[in-house]
Amino acid sequence: MGLTVEEASSIGGMRQGRLLAGKKGLSNIVSHVNVLEAVTEDDDHWDIRNHLFLTTFNFAGNDTNRQVELIRQLSRGGCVALVFQVGLVAPLRPAVLHAADELSLPLFELPLSVDYADILTPLICAVQGENGYLVREASLVQQQLLKEMLNGGGLGSLVSLLAGHFRRSVAVVDNRGVLYASSDDWVGADVIAHLPQYVAPAKTIVRRSAWITALARRPDIPIEGFLIVNSPDAVAPSALEAAMLDQGAALLTLELAKLRVADETYAEPFRTWMRYLLAGDFETARTFASAQSLDLASLRVAVMFQRVQPSQESWTSGDPETRSAWQAIYATEEKPLVFEWEGRLLWLPSIAPSASLAEVRIAVDTKVRRVWDRLVDNGIAVWRIASGAPVGSANLLHQSVQDAEAVFALDTPEHVNGPVAYDDVAIDILFRQIVSQPAAQRWVESVVGRLASHDLLQRSELVLTLETFFDSGQSHKLAAHRLGIHPKTLKYRLDKIEQIMGGLPIRDGSQFALHLALKLSRSSG
């Protein structure tokens, strides 16, 4: 099965192509025809033997070195020809053409007026001549999809058309597991939670409840997304269904890539603006926001996600734990402003601009709790979630980010039991900031140093006991209850404290100073 590149160049839309380089490779055998929109460093492991690829070549940009490396990488993998459309990148430089000649990899240039369908359908029919019926039927599906796309139908319309042909529910998700389109209410939550981390583009794998076809690549992540077809009977796709999956994957890839680029294009200016804010360059941040026409009215609070046990290795958007966070956020907010930020995820929830600070707290607590509940329901509670204090305007949002970072710095046990808001631990954060000052450390040592030293040597809890006693309004019964000890044990400890300290202050001012010193002492660890 197959034909030579030279024979392929005279079929369908390829007849309008022009050979730029790689003439010695015209005798290469074409066994597969596919669309290529990005290549990553580990694509050497991707089986592309005897593939003729159609591409915009846009992902390589106008970087000559990158274009040459792409030619070499494709040749190493066994690619037999590369076809791209003129005008999407600058004319290829001699170094690129020389590499193609050297490697005998034919490069064809096509006018923009030639549709992919005019190339794909005839070539696939020619390559798979003995499966002409399947190819023709699958091509009809592809033509319907292409017509819908050219008429302005988005990813949702294409997914609905496919669902009609398969008579099964269909969904498209990106590499993070974020749902971009679904034919009905079925979104394959269980399937999405266990997506494979590596599948070659256009390759379909069969899981217990779904067919999963991997879509295109990007330079920084292995998989762009997945086409998921509901298959509760665990039956593998028929030959015709497999052909339809192959035909539909290329067009769905293009639509998903456009939406992903749009999302990233939307988020990136906000990331840049936030960098200016956190660097203290407020004037540049203001000017940048104005120049980019950023809508900041709904940004009033920052929420950060951090791994419970941060790994020394870098993590990606496609690993299961990170996918779970993206999915939970996207399920909570329709178009969230969320991006990776210094090894964490930073989410800027959308809040009604007219909301008071109290209303902002309630709104963000509700959203964060929904995210947490989804993480727990999916059995993936590996994230700490911290929300900063609400601010009056977006120009102060850096303060909320710093608040969230300060919450993480506390490293309190509460983090593993749910989200923590800055307002709930603000006093502890402030105590820690105060006690970090040398003058405060000397004062704390002079007031409760002997008591703290006793605790350290005897492994006792006298500092905690006295602090709890003051927190309880000096009620023996309430303090004992909070400490989980018998009132007589509390009395013994208080007597011991009085003995060590030479008595307890009775004046209000002195009691307040001692109470504060106790808290600062515990905040210092």
UniProtKB/TrEMBL annotation:
Residues 16-122 form the Purine catabolism PurC-like domain. Residues 462-520 form the PucR C-terminal helix-turn-helix domain. Coiled coil: none annotated. InterPro entries: CdaR-like_regulators, PucR_C-HTH_dom, PucR_C-HTH_sf, PucR_dom. This is PucR family transcriptional regulator. It comes from Paraburkholderia polaris. The lineage of its organism: Bacteria, Pseudomonadati, Pseudomonadota, Betaproteobacteria, Burkholderiales.
